[in-house]
Amino acid sequence: MSSPLEAFAGLLDRSIREIATLATDARSFDATRIGRIADIWDNNTLPLVGAACAPWPLRSKRASSGLRWMAGLGADRRRLMVDLNPSLDRVLPTAPPERSVHRDYQGRVFPVTFRLTAEIIDALAEDYDLANGSVRSLTAQPSDEGLQVHLTLATPRRFTPSTGRVSRDGSEMPWQAAPLRFTFNGVSDLQFDAEDRIGMAVSRTSSGPTVAIGRSGRLQATEASVWPDDPRWHESTAGQAADLTTPHARPQRRKPLQTSTLTAPQQAAARSLVMLMIHARLVHYYPNLAAGIPILDICRVMADAGSAILAASARRGAARQTAFAELEQRWRHVPPEVPPEAIRSGPAMLRIARYDEPHDDHDVPHHGSAVLLAAAPSAHPAAPWTLASAEITEPSRFRIASTAFDDGQHIHHDGRSLRIGDALVLR
After folding, report:
1. What is the DSSP annotation of 94-123?
2. Other Cβ atoms closer than 10 A to 293
3. CA angle 81-278-320, nearest 5°?
């Protein structure tokens, strides 16, 4: 087992290599995993540099604290760290149990994410009119857990909020439909047509959750979760029940790790590296930009960053400051985005399909759109495949089936519409 500091820095090197591996050939491009890995280093790069630059007797202690603080975000974060470095499983504490309900600063309960059990399905049906809900957005993409689908259902409440919604001009307005945000993993069957998006029924079988959408849409998955993103959830039946059992004492906030001893060059280098990671994770949040984000160039700039931090911190005095200043110079220039390749007719492998219905959110209008991200072969047969994308504003038709993500597909694009046989129609 390496020292805690070597494990901390090695985790950064492994993170960068994994992101590069996922982006080298677009056929294995996994925007969700890239985003999750890059997100690790948002709040943990400064602690790594702080541990590396601490006095020798404190380095191992601060590195161990940094790894525990990183893993303390939850079970998913701990699993991701162990997946990147299995030896960490022996040294990281067990993830604490996670609560699905918390309290805000006013003491009101609010939900986070619930596993979609039969009990939760019954609770949703009691508080929200799923049969008259409308699919607001749907995103389907391959992931390390199989085909993953994110679905937001805008749903009428069965309970009446005690107060109205204060609009941007200060007037009181009725509350809009409540967004229920579902995530389905291991999707084996998906049929969705945006023209048939009204109404949703959810049940749970021995093989996992089953969803009916509209008259003929369907979705079958192995596991699912839901986040009721409703600002009035505390007034629902489920919210009132949770209010009786949720502690009023707010959980103690995690104390930030000590990094105040860092010099200006050390902080600048760390923050430049953070900015590179932030640009890398954009592929997860903005699929319409993913084909133009130079992930491989970003990874080349960041390559062996953990080892470079250890090497710079091993120097003394002015030499150490110079080394970190050189790292800041190396990491400060984010490779520019490039115009994304457009999807053309030919062989392809679909990586992301997203549909958004026009809607207002807090008095801000959002236009409807559809985004496709696909892997396409390069000019040279032996070269890695590259990403290509297409975005249509206010599409007149969007229909997709899970078979659109099968290997060996052919996309037909005639300038007006995109089609993968009967599995995908977009125009």
Report:
1. PPPPPPSEEE-TTS-EEE--EE--HHHHHH
2. 24
3. 80
Global confidence as pTM: 0.94
Instruction: Report pLDDT digits (tens) over 231-268.
Output: 999 999 999 999 999 998 876 666 767 666 899 999 99
Taking residue 167's Cβ as centre, other Cβ atoms within 10 Å add up to 11
Residues 6+ apart with CB under 8 A from 341: 291, 376, 386, 387, 388, 389
Name residues whose C-beta falls within 8 Å of residue 148's C-beta, 6 or more positions apart in sequence: 32, 140, 141, 142, 183, 184, 185, 187
For residue 263, the one-letter residue type is T
Tell me the β-bridge partners of 103. Answer: 109
**CA–CA gap between residue 291 and residue 371 (Å, rounded):** 11
Of the candidates 406, 396, 407, 399, the one whose C-alpha atom is nearest the C-alpha of residue 424 is: 399
CB–CB of 262/50 below 8 Å?
A: yes
Cα–Cα distance list, 180 to 266, 273, 301 (Å):
43, 35, 40
State both tokens at 235. 């007034």
Helix (H/G/I), strand (E/B), else coil: 139:
strand
